[in-house]
Known about the structure:
By secondary structure, the protein is α/β, with parallel strands linked by helices. It contains 15 helices and 20 strands. Residues 237, 239, 287, 314, 316 line the site of magnesium ion.
Amino acid sequence: MVKIGTTEEFKVVFVDKEMAKSINHKLKGKFEGKASENLVVNDSLAYVGIDEPSDEKLGYRELGFNTAKFVKKLGVAAVELDLTLIKEDDLPNFFLGLYLALCVKKTYKSEEPKEEGKQDIFINYKLLPDAELADYMEEGRILAENVMAARNFVNAPSNLLYPEEFARQIKSFVSGAGLGIEYKVLHQKEIVDKGMGLLNIVGDSSKNKPCLVVLSYNGAAGSDKVLALVGKGVCMDTGGYCLKPGSSIYDMKGDMAGAAAVVSAIKAIASRRLRLNVKAVIPIVENRISDASFVPSDVITSYSGKTVEILNTDAEGRLILADAISYAIKDEKATHIVDIATLTGAVVSMLGQTVTGILSNDENGFYKTFNEASTRYGERHLLLPYYKEHEKMIESELADIKNLGDKFCGTITAGLFIKAFTEDKPWIHMDIAGTSKMDSPVFSYEEKGPTGTGVVQLYSLAKLLIPFHF
Ligand code: BES
Ligand code: MG
Ligand code: ZN
């Protein structure tokens, strides 16, 4: 339990370099007060350094995480953290990191890992009234729980998390505790009846048929603005007939990281009762090989009415997202759209595993708010350019558009394919193929494997949109 207050049992005091020097003087130690460095003085006092954090913003997430881990090891029943030296601006990341350290990762081992000893952590931060401090703490807890939930979804193997099962798990995930999230699912028959040809043709390639989940959170009854968060939910991407090499298929159980992010983000938004209207629209499929699979050269009619020539069955994400975006606009009256997807290998080559690639059709408006929201938490992203020549690359001779560009700039052409279905609504595209998973973590709060990327950025975006009369 983390709560506001003090305790005499054990105090952890945060110190900077200057304070560390005076401590050294008394203790003749080597403690320099560097970020996360710790010094246990006796059985009721320890110091933790805060100087030279590893990153201006994310360093505080790391400090919160390391502090919680340190405190757990102390083996005492109650600990007070004196955070006086931490700036108010850094509290969101600090609490996010602290609570992340207290979240438990789901595994599939036959024996549950032992739970570490629980203790009371008292937060002492007299610089703010209790109500404001409690608000920061609750926000950190909710974000951490939802980041962990997104990681757990992404980690789930595709034999246990296939489309209809993912839909059921989403329902139970958002249904609890009077969050006010409405759940709706369209099964394959409704997808076909509505004319979502792209979503259907990808999903029909597997015996586990496609579905579309829609979550609605109406936090602003009087507003006609609707933010749609559209997340790619490919539970397994083998590539289809344009089959991936064997070694690349393992990671494709996580090709639904965009879906995991939007489900977790809308839960965080609803848990915090943010005053805006949000829809999560989640097309869920498997991309496999069967006698019902689509093949290169097929021409498919999308829900928008546009015809699409298939050049590569492995470029499936953009297809299902296109129909989901049309659904968000036509059926859910979306006024603003963010799509988030593990979309291209090209973004991984370009930006690696720590920077999300972005495209937007509204650089000076919607993207500005996104940029501020993302950088506020220190999340990393890069806006990519596009020009006429890029749009030309996805023109088809036979149909309205094709699902593959030229040899180069695959991230841009993939994004522009999606843009073609946004009907000029303000739109942001997040390509998280690189950032949804990490091979070598940079910060201690990250683990090898799924990162839960997108949850913090989407939540922060929703929060920042409210003052724009959303
Ligand atoms: N799911 C993949 C993209 C991906 C690659 C995600 C690496 C995570 C890590 C996507 O569906 C895909 O297969 N993209 C192709 C597109 C190509 C055929 C134009 C790719 O990037 O190779
Ligand atoms: Mg693919
Ligand atoms: Zn994919």
